[in-house]
Design goal:
Blueprint: E1 2-8, E2 18-29, E3 34-39, E4 46-51, E5 62-65, E6 69-75, H1 89-97, H2 103-112, E7 120-127, E8 132-138, E9 146-147, E10 151-155, H3 165-178, H4 185-196, H5 206-211, H6 217-222, E11 233-244, E12 248-257, E13 260-272, H7 285-294, H8 296-303, E14 307-312, E15 315-324, E16 342-343, E17 346-347, E18 365-367, E19 369-370, H9 374-381, E20 393-396, E21 399-402, E22 416-417
Parallel strand pairs: 15-18
Antiparallel strand pairs: 1-2, 1-10, 2-11, 3-4, 4-5, 5-6, 6-7, 7-8, 8-9, 11-12, 12-13, 14-15, 16-19, 16-22, 17-18, 20-21
Helix pairs in contact: 3-4, 7-8
């Protein structure tokens, strides 16, 4: 069980106001293994806590990434959940790592598989320069996801804004705090933590009790508080997320240590949202070269696996898939370098580019930066020996450079100066 309160204000009038204020509790068995919030080792753009339960490792309950994608999940109260259902925490993790679907499209996809999970509520959001979007889907409610209007919302273990007493009282308390414009950022966080740690019981509650048919009376009573306390189960994590009008994010987590309700650790993270690279249609490979010059790493992310037409003597040739060799796109960006760069564009790679990468044979285009000295450029113009194989990598401007590629006889290599 969990509870979330949030205020969504995509275009706040004041620069000191917030586009999002979110306060959430994670309620769970105290002994369930989990990792406190931090940036992922496998993806440093993503910040969240992680489930470490066997078979559900890597799932999360709430997280955000530096590109402005946010997701949160709560369980739907049910007396007899299916033990073989898929883990709901992956609904959050998968959204944060997904690069193709927006918040609504992701929920649309999830809704098609909603029957594979026990009851859940899922919030997905995007905070971008041009538009902020928050969407909601619950697999025990409407079959269609919802795009939410600006406002204040509450979500517990029923559908969005279901009038449980704990939700209504908590939402009222939350609203009084977020509407207090005299609070500093630190003051706001502290007041929101007070909202989340209210242990006052809101029983009896006929609406909650009706949905909790099958739960013991003591447990239903314990679950009637915003901050749940029982011997082995309850609130073990508080999270506050603030996103302001200047793209600054503050993520504060207060989490229980060693299953001890008197022992807590508080962590805070601050970062600035980063915009995804957006690229206009290209009229030539030279256009891509200019874009790559601006930000090589972003260009690699944007074009890997996409369709691109090849430049053959300044004439557009057949479209093909672009492949970025792993190891290149994770290298540091070279946008601050004043040296001219060269990009390699070749079609129909004939032999192995790397012995361990046979999939390169099915790739139409391979792109990578070349060294820019005339003597080094000339070796690209020389026809390679028929049996020559790949090979040599060289470090240049912090980007890995492949120096040999074999092309079909009727193709040429067109390096582009930028």
């Amino acid at each position: 069980m969990c509870i979330i309160f949030f205020k969504f204000d995509p275009r706040p009038v004041s620069k000191n106001a917030y586009r999002l204020i979110l306060a959430a509790n994670r309620d769970e068995v105290y002994s369930r293994p989990s990792k406190a919030a931090d940036f992922w080792v496998t993806n440093s753009d993503i910040l969240s806590g992680l489930d470490l339960e066997y078979g559900k490792e890597g799932g999360s309950w709430l997280g955000i990434n530096k590109r402005g994608k946010l997701a949160a999940v709560t369980n739907y109260m049910e007396a007899r959940p299916n033990p073989d259902a898929q883990g709901r925490g992956f609904l959050v993790s998968n959204y944060l790592t997904d690069k193709d679907l927006d918040s609504y499209a992701y929920l649309k996809k999830v809704s098609a598989d909603g029957h594979l999970y026990n009851g859940f509520n899922l919030i997905t959001a995007e905070f971008k320069a041009k538009q902020d979007i928050v969407c909601y889907y619950g697999n025990r409610g409407s079959p269609e996801p919802m795009r939410l209007n600006p406002g204040i919302y509450g979500l517990s273990n029923s559908l969005l804004d279901t009038p449980w007493k704990k939700l209504m009282k908590g939402k009222q308390h939350f609203a009084s705090v977020v509407n207090n414009q005299s609070l500093s950022s630190d003051g706001l966080v502290q007041e929101l933590l007070s909202v989340l740690n209210n242990e006052e019981l809101n029983a009896p509650d006929p609406v909650q009790e009706m949905q909790g048919d099958g739960y013991s009376k003591p447990m239903i009573q314990a679950l009637s508080a915003v901050c749940v306390r029982s011997p082995h189960y309850g609130t073990r994590t508080n999270t506050i997320i603030l996103i302001d009008a200047e793209d600054n994010v503050t993520f504060t987590e207060r989490t229980m240590i060693n299953e001890d309700t008197t022992n807590w650790n508080v962590s805070s993270f601050q970062f600035k949202l980063q915009e995804e690279a957006h690229w206009s249609p290209l009229s030539s490979v030279g256009d891509l070269a200019n874009l790559c010059k601006t930000c090589w790493a972003a260009a690699c992310r944007a074009f890997s696996g996409t369709e691109l037409a090849l430049d053959s003597g300044n004439t557009m040739a057949n479209p093909g898939k672009v492949m970025v060799i792993p190891g290149i796109r994770e290298r540091p960006c070279v946008e601050e370098s004043r040296e001219r760069k060269m990009l390699l564009f070749g079609r129909n790679v004939k032999r192995r580019l790397v012995p361990s990468r046979p999939d390169v044979l099915q790739t139409d285009v391979v792109i990578g930066p070349l060294l820019n000295q005339p003597s080094q450029r000339r070796q690209w113009e020389e026809e390679p020996e028929a049996d020559s194989q790949v090979p040599v990598g060289r470090q240049f401007a912090n980007i890995y450079c492949y120096q040999k590629i074999l092309l079909e006889d009727d193709q040429c290599l067109y390096p582009v100066l930028s």
